[in-house]
Amino acid sequence: MYFKKRLLFESGISLSTIDQEDYFELLEVMSSKPRDKRALSAAEAHRRMRG
Questions:
Q1: Which residues constitute the domain of residue 9?
Q2: Which residue has the higher pLDDT, 43 or 35?
């Protein structure tokens, strides 16, 4: 229920829209981060350390 409340107030998504969508996809979208805030893969971290 809290998740629906957050969507309603922060995103302006209606309750009927929320109920029609895939819940797990909505969770993934709401928890996504911008590219610069994401964790690096091991390969990318190694590449950045080498310069």
A1: 2-50
A2: 43
